[in-house]
Amino acid sequence: MLEVALSHRFAGFALDVDFTAPPGITALFGRSGSGKTSIINAVAGLLRPDAGRITADGRVLFDSAQGAFLPPHRRRLGYIFQEARLFPHLTVRRNLAYGAWFAPRHALREPRDRVIEMLGIGHLLDRRPAALSGGERQRVAIGRAVLSAPRLILADEPLASLDAARKAEILPYFERLRDELSVPMLYVSHSAAEVARLATTVIAIEAGRVSAQGQAADLFSDPAILPLGAREAGAILTARVARHHADGLTELDAGGHPLFLPRIAAAPGRAMRIRVAAHEVILSRHRPEGLSALNILPGRVLTVAEGQGPGAMVTLETPAGRLLARLTKRSAALLELRAGVAAHAIIKTVSVAPGDIGAGGDTSEAARADQMPR
Amino acid sequence: MTGWLGPEEWQAVALSLKVSFWATLASLPPGILAAHALARWRFPGRQLLNGLVHLPLILPPVVTGYLLLIAFGTRGPVGGFLEDLGIVFAFRWTGAALAAAVMAFPLMVRAIRLSIEAVDARLDQAGATLGASPPWVFVTVTLPMALPGIVAGAILGFAKAMGEFGATITFVSNIPGETRTVPMAIYAFLQVPGGTEPAMRLVIVSVVIAMSALLLSEWLGRAVAARVGGSHA
To answer: A233-371 is classed in which CATH architecture?
Structure first.
């Protein structure tokens, strides 16, 4: 459990945040320049805030009232930087060993071989960082942080400097860190897709303040507190792989309703997060017929939020979870959508976590089930 | 070699090498410290330290030598104290080494400082987050990364010490076998009739040593750079 309360004044910018990060991955989510990196640097001890208090598992890292400031090397936090920052003069093996060497003897540490295996860096051990690709470097940086026996892992946009293919390569490792290691993580990102996929808890940061915090699924389906533009809005549902069909489709069970998408490599029974972008959802008051779309979920309108432009954001409660739909104000008026009315959501594209990278989610594994040849 | 060089000349060459070696060795630790402080730390008096380090470069060497004589002479404040401890600089080869070290110091610090500044300071932060205290970060990250510059600085300092004349002659005079280094031997030979020939031989020795130092520093620099930033282990 990490508790952060701090305020700091930069030239022309003020940071003033207060939040708690429970175990799991807590995402600090917001636009570039909103102060996310400053927060994580304050937690790491690389920035000394003007005022506030930071504690990790009850241990005081910083407390301006008591004048307490633990220097970074005594905080025992694994920091994964955006640009890897591996030591160029050391081999991968010695980079990985660096943090472990300074960790106390009794520290709880992850078994080295397991981390190396998990990150797939066993064949790189004798190389130097200059001989690694961007994705390999970032994986080694993750391993270096994890193997320093940290109490908390900090990750500052660890994927931002990588292209889409490299991101797809690294994201699964963060999922494994979340699922297989006991260490909590603070993850800074401005990408909705990344956060939707990884985060347990989301702290939305806007202009140096916390604009919203909560469970990822709740936060992403609430248009009122969505800290991003409508283009990136999208809800997260949890579904289970039901079966694989002979025609190349995989059927998911989303709250008792089937969702189809092109075959994904996951065993039946496995739960996955799916992200449905708001602009990929069409609403209908009646159950549509004679439509090519396969993925239709019944539901009830929770809210209709109208912005300043011609658009409106509709939240729909479905058996699979909350959905967001972006339509025009005109359509919302024509359909007489308001809280409480029944509606059907027609989902054009469902994207599944393993391919859910980038704003639109239209990567190779994202699915347009309705347009698949049958 | 001894056959070609006269005993007096050989003595001067050996003394020069000894003086320069100790001058370089003794000034390297404070040189690295000063370079690191100037490159990385922000503290009051930083500009003053910078000025002090560079002073021997801009002052006339005679002035530096005279200041050393005042401070480190047997009746000087520092020299008198050190004499009680059994350390004497005045008119000894140790004094020649001290003068050479002081004169070589600015060049050495400049080279090392540049190489420390070239080490990405964000790597220091990475080291700190991994649990390394500032001295450990310095030893495990900054120092090995800056090694090419440190080697270059040391060799530059050595070459400068080999050539030191003004401060040395003012501080410790020109005593054969004690403080008569190669430049001073050349100067002495040129003062007497028939001295051009031995002087010429010492000039050749000087050129050879200087060239060797330069080539060595190039080669070491490249070898170290390959080890530090090279692609494969």
So the answer is: Beta Barrel (2.40)
